[in-house]
Amino acid sequence: MAAAPDDADAGPRTRNGRAAERVPDPARARRQEHLREHNLSAALGCVVDATAPPSRAQIAAATGLARGTVTGLVDVLIDAGLVRELDPVAAPRAGRPAVPLVPVPGRIAGVGMEVNVDYLGVRAVDLAGGVVVERVEQDDLRGADAGDVLDRLSALAGPVLAGLQADGVRVAGTALALPGLVDRVTGPLRVAPNLGWRDVDVVARLAADPVLAAFPPRLANEANLAARAEAHTRRGAGAPSFLYVSGEVGVGGALVLDGEIFLGRHGWSGEIGHVVVDGSAPEGPATLERLAGQDAIAAAAGLPAGTRFADLLAAVDAEDPAAVAAVHDAARWLGLALATVANVVDVGAVVLGGTFGQLYPHVEGAVRDALDAHVIFAPWSALEVSRARAGAYPAMTGGALAVLRQVVAEPSLWLTPS
Amino acid sequence: MAAAPDDADAGPRTRNGRAAERVPDPARARRQEHLREHNLSAALGCVVDATAPPSRAQIAAATGLARGTVTGLVDVLIDAGLVRELDPVAAPRAGRPAVPLVPVPGRIAGVGMEVNVDYLGVRAVDLAGGVVVERVEQDDLRGADAGDVLDRLSALAGPVLAGLQADGVRVAGTALALPGLVDRVTGPLRVAPNLGWRDVDVVARLAADPVLAAFPPRLANEANLAARAEAHTRRGAGAPSFLYVSGEVGVGGALVLDGEIFLGRHGWSGEIGHVVVDGSAPEGPATLERLAGQDAIAAAAGLPAGTRFADLLAAVDAEDPAAVAAVHDAARWLGLALATVANVVDVGAVVLGGTFGQLYPHVEGAVRDALDAHVIFAPWSALEVSRARAGAYPAMTGGALAVLRQVVAEPSLWLTPS
DNA sequence: TGGATAAATTCATGCCGAGAACAAATCCGC
DNA sequence: GCGGATTTGTTCTCGGCATGAATTTATCCA
Q1: Where are the alpha helices (DSSP H) in A3-145?
Q2: What is the domain-level CATH number for residue A212?
Q3: Are residues A87 and A117 in the same domain?
Q4: Phi, psi (5° rounding) for residue B210?
Q5: Contacts of A258 in chain B (CB under 8 A)
Q6: Residue-wise DSSP of B254-268
Q7: Which of A316, A388, B252, B291 has its CA 20 to 30 A from that of B160?
Q8: Are B364 and B350 in contact (CB under 8 A)?
């Protein structure tokens, strides 16, 4: 097990190969130097992930470190320009007021890019979680040439990166979300059915752009990154765990466990669209995507092939009986698939995003019913069902956050202001 | 060179009184001491998990620690009686011969117990992985009173525990495997359908036995523990990851990721028997267990209800056409369920245990076909399919190993020979 | 205004891993 | 058979770093 120099990966590996977490991971503190790194990471993580700016004392309490130790760690982070003090806030109690600590905004940014069926775009997020800049172009990219589209993405993202650097923002890296199967590191895109892409060396193509060449993107599945953004918005009371469903033209998904995306060997986990829910369908075993994908719903609703989602949504909101029934049917299949997954991974919540999020009022009931009926542990612990709250283009945000997570995981790489 | 100037740690290293005061342990006594604990654990883990006895130098290489550091760690483990040196083995190369290190056999044991539909038993395994003692009783326990069965288990396991202690074996703890839904720690058994149990406070009942009362068992699902044993036999080239299927009367399963059992929130993961594979079945959505459980196969084979598995196996081995067809059909459903799970968790291998292991030659083909056809990433990375190799009653072994894992995880608790 | 309370800092202490030097034990070529 | 090469294991010094107590700072409250 040598060093593993690929730090573009999903974080440092422990002896188990699992992604390292912030606080409760004893497996990483192997050497003395790693001890320091680990504690720096824990302190920075407290500041970055907190919903309210923590004081040094709160960091000490959260990490279990001595207060004096935290003082030293925070000094380092402040000197590096990663963290800044706010003015002390008078508390409604006796004692010296705490000094709130926040990530320095606009200092370090992660850049998330996305190519999807209907749009492509780029979004930069700083350590404080704020959107620094974003560009999105709407277009129907089904069947478009992969090279052309990637060149177009370069033209969009290159100036954004250049602009960030010109403004003195350090770019921590980039990530690219794609609606298909991509290897977890930087391997080629295997297949993106709804784009019509197959075996595309995305990174090489983007490297043709001189600016992007300096920031080779981590590739990831669109649903996985969207789930990361969702996990970010739901942090707070501990790291959330849920099953995320991202309906687009296809049906994607991701598994979030304790705030971490579960990637699996290659990063191909969460393909809930390929869950087989009807094994005795006349044309052969049918997957969820075939029964509840956008095209299937439109067809069942009596809408012409190639109907845009907006039209379907309009029909449903107008309470067109066929459309409502079609959505309800799809929701039932979705519920069955989710119940299946829940039985296998024992997760406590389901989050519906993408088109299913937009159709939420019309799918929630059927999904709940299916879960209650088919999840074996439902009588003791019912699954929570909710709607995605990460906002528009969550995969772009998720990609940026994935990059920023590297900064938090290894703060020592960012201590020298370059 | 063990021994050395013994005068042993007559006093616990007189840490200047600090040791005594550290006992309170505020939530998490952190860092510095955890570093030592972690490295001790890593060293012991190397010795325990290795397939060939490692030398100090190999431990240093595997953990990344300095050789001198490893010397110190190993000294502690040897003094504690957890590890022992073997005679140096002349190597076919230059250099001082390495001193192989092995766990001391028969010194510390984990005890795994199991209650299943057809038998109950207990097995003790020591740190070296050897079976110290075991007792199994065959009986049909379907519908038997839970209290009676647990008393019987007490009568079986109590003397085993007493005997171990009489022989000077330190019992690290006990685990109990059950064919049902149990909370991951020691919560009550929620439901074990094939035993006909529901909401049984297993731990309390076992505590009625004075010997067992001192070793309250960790409860776990039978398939989960069987998978742990399977992972143990498959260690070697790194920690294995696979999807384990345990066919008994029902169909259970477990997810093994990097050598660890994936438990989920409550320990209810892996219930592959409740995967919905035929959502449009006439009587309502059908689970894998309903279509490929033992009773379903027997019925499809034209055998009377309540047929014993041995009779089914005999019919299949005799190439009874109905039986072969029934098994093949079940295998197809199994393959669909496994493909579904693989699409969601991106794992690279499938291991068939329990009855599916015994039927392996008759199910392998259909399972492979289904996986190839329905796993989205199969064209790039086909799933390996293999048969369980952990031997008889794997859940008992897995339970014992689960207990021993605690010893490896926190060696400091076992340093004082008590 | 002084005491209580809490946050943050300072500092002496000691644990622990790193790394180098050294000792031990073997193989190999001459 | 002898010396050098090689690898394992031990010893020892050094320095990093967390710790915990004492101290300082800053506010609230009676």
Answers
A1: 32-49, 56-63, 67-79
A2: 3.30.420.40
A3: no
A4: -65, -35
A5: none
A6: EEEETTEE--TTTS-
A7: B252
A8: no
Of chain B, the end-to-end C-alpha distance in Å amounts to 23
Whether residues B187 and B99 share a domain: the answer is: no
Which residues partner with A304 through β-bridges? Answer: none
Cβ atoms of B105 and B126 closer than 8 Å: yes
Distance, in Å, from the CA atom of B115 to the CA atom of B119, rounded to the nearest integer, reads 6
B 173-192 residues with CB below 8 A of A? 181, 190
- By DSSP bridging, strand A242-247 and strand A251-257 are antiparallel
Q: CA–CA distance from A177 to each of A122, A180, B115, B317 (Å)? A: 10, 9, 48, 51
How far B413 CA sits from the closest chain A CA (Å)?
16
The domain of B221 spans 108-225+395-412
Q: How far is the CA of A56 from the C1' of D26 (A)?
A: 15
**Measured between alpha carbons, how far is residue B279 from residues A263, A371, B199, B273, B300 in Å?**
27, 13, 29, 14, 20
Number of domains, chain B: 3
Q: Strands across the sheet with A189-192, in order?
A: A181-182, A189-192, A197-200
CA dist B250 → A43, A91, B81 (Å): 48, 59, 43
Instruction: Report the distance separating Cα A159 and Cα A210, nearest Å.
Output: 11
Tokens 């699992």 belong to residue: A18
Question: Which chain B residues are closer than 8 Å to A262 by Cβ?
Answer: 345
Tens-level pLDDT at each residue, chain B (418 residues):
333 332 222 222 222 222 222 222 222 335 656 788 999 999 999 999 999 999 999 999 999 999 999 999 999 999 999 999 999 887 778 888 999 999 999 999 999 999 999 999 999 999 999 999 999 999 999 889 999 999 999 999 999 999 999 999 999 999 999 999 988 766 688 999 889 999 999 999 999 999 999 999 999 999 999 999 999 999 987 789 999 999 888 899 999 999 999 998 888 999 999 999 999 999 999 999 999 999 999 999 999 977 889 999 999 999 999 999 999 999 999 999 999 999 999 999 999 999 999 999 999 999 999 999 999 999 989 999 999 999 999 999 999 999 999 999 999 999 986 6
> Within an 8 Å CB–CB cutoff, is residue B349 touching chain A?
no
Say if residue A294 is in the same domain as residue A173: no
Give the 3-state secondary structure of residue B105. Answer: coil
Looking at the domain assignment, is residue A20 inside a domain? no
